[in-house]
Design a protein that fits this description.
The complex is a heterodimer of chains A (about 500) and B (about 270). Chain A is about 70% helix and about 0% strand. In chain A, helix 7 packs across helix 8 and helix 13 packs across helix 14. Chain A is built from 19 helices and two strands. The chains are: A mainly alpha (about 500), B alpha/beta (about 270). At the A-B interface, helix 14 and helix 15 of A face helix 2, helix 4 and helix 5 of B. The structure holds adenosine-5'-diphosphate and magnesium ion. Magnesium ion binds next to helix 1 of chain B.
């Protein structure tokens, strides 16, 4: 494309130093004795061309040294864990266990993906776990009581529940978060009309309840101005109580429904698995390559082509190998045959794709990063900071509800502990271990997936090694501490580099 | 666009033919609680001129800029833009008029790159989606038009830029929008000699492109190097607005520290005649 500015080959600016090999101050710059951060851009000339692979690698290295580690530590950790466990436990690398690992990690992954939005603003949602429990118990109650929530809850509780949904819708409307308002109202309608039980309605109800919860949390944080730590700590306790109230001390609500059961326990057929592989890997390749070459054509900044090709190739090969392995029979008995990619894989993938798209390709996503990076700058740029802050809690709670559907499906029932225990801590841990910064502004959705993979692997592997729960908890805690430490250190490094 | 000879960097000998006031403040007051920060401020910015706004720390310079930018609402008084009275209730209102501000603390998001920062809050694209290609090209065009060559790639994260480069990005951000008035709050305070020079050249170039420029600075050399006129705030009052060529360094310093110099400036509090 003909650009009217400097030619894409960056030969236009006479003062520009064009030698890609030079480092740090060159002669044009030598009269300026400011100290540069390690990753600083030091030479002149707006560079419109794609960089060479060499340069890109060096840039990446500079970024790492500057403290911008991204998911690298988690990926390395994952590799180490896989090596250690597969050498210590011979059942670890079996197909059955890998598929099991996916199902174990799915709910944590999903809740963690929602939490990434909150963490990106430098906020925290401690109530995501128990809020997901509320969504799960309303869902189970609706199913078990044949759609009669009034009967299931009792009149007082039911009225309070409806009032809460209405309040959530109003608060969302006040903040002009129309989606939040509409979805909260859907929950209200389902509850009041008494829609007969149906697995799809139950799942919708759970997500709507989660959204409503997020509207209230978000309003308290963003508009009332209570620190998110306090709001969500209070709600963590409150929602725990609500779950207990809805299900009853010592009670259990069984999810006797085939569709609900299969969410976390079912598999795609062989053909379906390959279709998924083709759509996911092919779609990824098409999008990444399409974007890359379009940027090259327009003379925009683009990473080197070999690097992009390698990345795409690796993903496609991994997807194909994974699909192939998962379509083999992984049953340990001779009587049953278990094949196919678990449903949780497409579920997580779809959420990952949608969320990543929102964060990286939409104006809203840009504003999330901006508010997380510098709230005052965002405000001065005319961004409605309160609205953005509220919205992330809505997204987080809605994602937590999806996670609730998955973990309830996995065990086939909902008990008073739903979403309690370490659900939340593992989810936050997953996001942070994956490379999302607790200080805001830094992180991507895939971090949640990578981090959850690390935690699920630890849990699964230690379980196979017959380690007691005590040891598993301690190791998990230490890994989280390590990740948070890396985050804090890399932040210090980045600050010192300035 | 009224483009004047770009070779001029010494403004004193090149006073423009009287240009229209583009931004005028009349009797603007601002208090923070009990603290009166701005007292009946009159202030005029002309297109094609650099107006220096000087004053001691706490004189109210930043507050004045924020009132114009819609960050703070003035308590009373009138703001006129291009001859019309206007109401500025938020950053968007100011931006819609073509008023851009380069803040003292820059207000850049470290975690975003140069393009993303330049378009923050005004991203291009339809249906909530981002048109990255368009934004990247426009950002590069602006940087090129300002002869900015210190940024290697427009996709560099701001956290990786040096102080001078950040300043450059903040200024480029302000002129991206066909803005008509640019207010710069101490843009050179944190810079070295050479970087200061670059920023001042940039400031001068903005005025040459026909913009009204307000430069807040503590440095008399900077003020006299680029400004056509000097406005001096003293304890929240406008002490004097004069042509740079009509005053000396010493007079301006006196205005800053004492509020008056000879027959310039506000009357002393004890002989309150103003
Ligand atoms: N947001 C605020 N709240 C209360 N007081 C403020 C605020 N901003 C500025 N001030 C006060 O207003 C006065 C002028 O500040 P400022 O405009 O920043 O001065 P300058 O930029 O000239 O150094 C100072 O006394 C300062 O303490
Ligand atoms: Mg100031």
């Amino acid at each position: 494309m003909a650009d009217d500015e400097t030619s894409p080959t960056a030969t236009a600016t006479p003062a520009a130093s064009l030698d890609p090999d030079q480092h740090h101050t060159d002669q044009h710059d030598s009269d300026q004795h400011y100290t540069d951060p390690p990753a600083a851009i030091t030479d002149f000339g707006i560079d419109t061309t794609s960089r060479s692979t060499d340069e890109a690698v060096r840039d990446y290295w500079a970024r790492l040294r500057g403290g911008d580690l991204g998911p690298l530590p988690a990926l390395l950790g994952l590799v180490v864990l896989l090596a250690v466990f597969s050498s210590l436990a011979d059942t670890f690398l079996t197909l059955g266990n890998i598929a099991n690992l996916l199902a174990q990690g799915a709910s944590i992954t999903i809740i963690a993906m929602g939490l990434v939005f909150v963490l990106l603003l430098g906020e925290i949602d401690l109530s995501a776990g128990t809020a997901s429990g509320v969504a799960a118990s309303v869902m189970a109650l609706h199913l078990v009581k044949g759609g009669n929530l009034l009967g299931g809850m009792g009149q007082g509780v039911f009225l309070a529940f409806c009032a809460f949904l209405l309040l959530a819708a109003l608060l969302a409307a006040v903040m002009r978060i129309w989606a939040g308002a509409a979805i909260s109202l859907v929950a209200l309608v389902i509850a009041v009309i008494g829609v007969p039980p149906n697995p799809w309605v139950e799942m919708l109800l759970a997500i709507c309840v989660g959204t409503a919860i997020g509207c209230v949390t978000g309003f308290l944080v963003a508009k009332v101005g209570i620190p998110s730590f306090v709001v969500t700590l209070a709600l963590f306790l409150a929602w725990g109580g609500v779950v207990l109230q809805l299900i009853g001390q010592g009670g259990t609500l069984g999810l006797n429904d085939d569709v609900l059961f299969r969410v976390a326990n079912g598999n795609l057929g062989t053909a379906g698995s390959w279709v998924l592989c083709a759509v996911a890997a092919g779609g990824y390749a098409a999008v990444v390559l399409g974007r890359h070459f379009s940027r090259l054509r327009k003379g925009l900044v683009a990473p080197p082509t070999p690097l992009v090709l390698t990345k795409v190739g690796a993903v496609v090969v991994l997807a194909a190998v994974g699909t192939h392995l998962l379509t083999l029979n992984r049953s340990v008995s001779d009587v049953v045959v278990i094949t196919g990619v678990p449903y949780v894989v497409p579920i997580v993938l779809v959420l990952l794709v949608i969320g990543t798209f929102v964060l990286e390709r939409t104006r809203y996503g840009r504003h999330v990063y901006a508010v997380g990076g510098n709230r005052e700058a965002a405000r001065r740029a005319g961004i409605d900071v309160a609205r953005v802050r509220m919205s992330v809690f809505v997204i987080c709670s809605a994602a937590a509800a999806v996670g609730a559907i998955v973990y309830s499906s996995k065990v086939g029932s909902v008990d008073p502990n739903a979403g309690g225990g370490n659900t939340l801590l593992l989810s936050v841990g997953a996001a942070v271990i994956g490379g999302t910064s607790l200080f805001g502004g830094k992180g991507r959705l895939r971090d949640a997936v990578i981090g959850a993979a690390v935690l699920a692997t630890i849990n699964n592997g230690m379980g196979l090694l017959k380690q007691p729960a005590a040891v598993v908890f301690i190791v998990t805690g230490l890994v989280l501490l390590l990740a948070a430490g890396v985050d804090a250190l890399s932040r210090r490094r980045a600050a010192a580099a300035r | 666009m009224r483009q004047r000879s770009p070779s001029t960097t010494a403004p004193g000998q090149h006073t423009p033919a009287v240009s229209e006031p583009i931004l005028e403040l009349r009797g603007v007051n601002k208090s923070f609680g009990p603290v009166r920060v701005l007292h009946d401020i009159d202030f005029t910015v002309r297109a094609g001129e650099v107006t220096a706004l000087v004053g001691d720390n706490g004189a109210g310079k930043s507050t004045l800029v924020k009132c114009v930018a819609g960050i703070h609402a003035a308590d009373s008084g009138e703001i006129r833009f291009a001859g019309r009275p206007v109401r500025i209730h938020g950053p968007r209102d100011a931006a819609d008029l073509g008023i851009e501000v380069v803040y003292q603390d820059l207000a850049l998001a470290d975690n975003l790159d140069v393009v993303q920062n330049m378009f923050l809050g005004r991203e291009r694209g339809r249906y909530g989606l981002l048109d990255e290609a368009d934004m990247e090209r426009a950002a590069r065009r602006t940087l090129t038009s300002l002869s900015v060559r210190t940024v290697k790639s427009v996709r560099t994260k701001v956290s990786a830029l040096s102080g001078g480069q950040r300043q450059t990005v903040a200024i480029a951000k302000a002129v991206l929008w066909n803005s008509r008035v640019v207010l710069l709050d101490e843009p050179t305070a944190a810079l070295g000699v050479a970087q200061t020079r670059q920023v001042l050249d940039l400031v001068r170039r903005l005025a040459e492109q026909g913009l009204g420029v307000v430069l807040i600075s503590h440095n008399m050399n900077d003020v006299f190097a680029v400004a056509d006129r000097v406005a001096c705030l003293y304890l929240g009052r406008m002490a004097a607005e004069v042509h740079t060529k009509d005053v000396t360094h010493g007079q301006v310093v006196e205005l800053i520290t004492a509020g008056r110099s000879g027959d310039l400036g506000i009357a002393r509090p004890e002989s309150a005649t103003t």
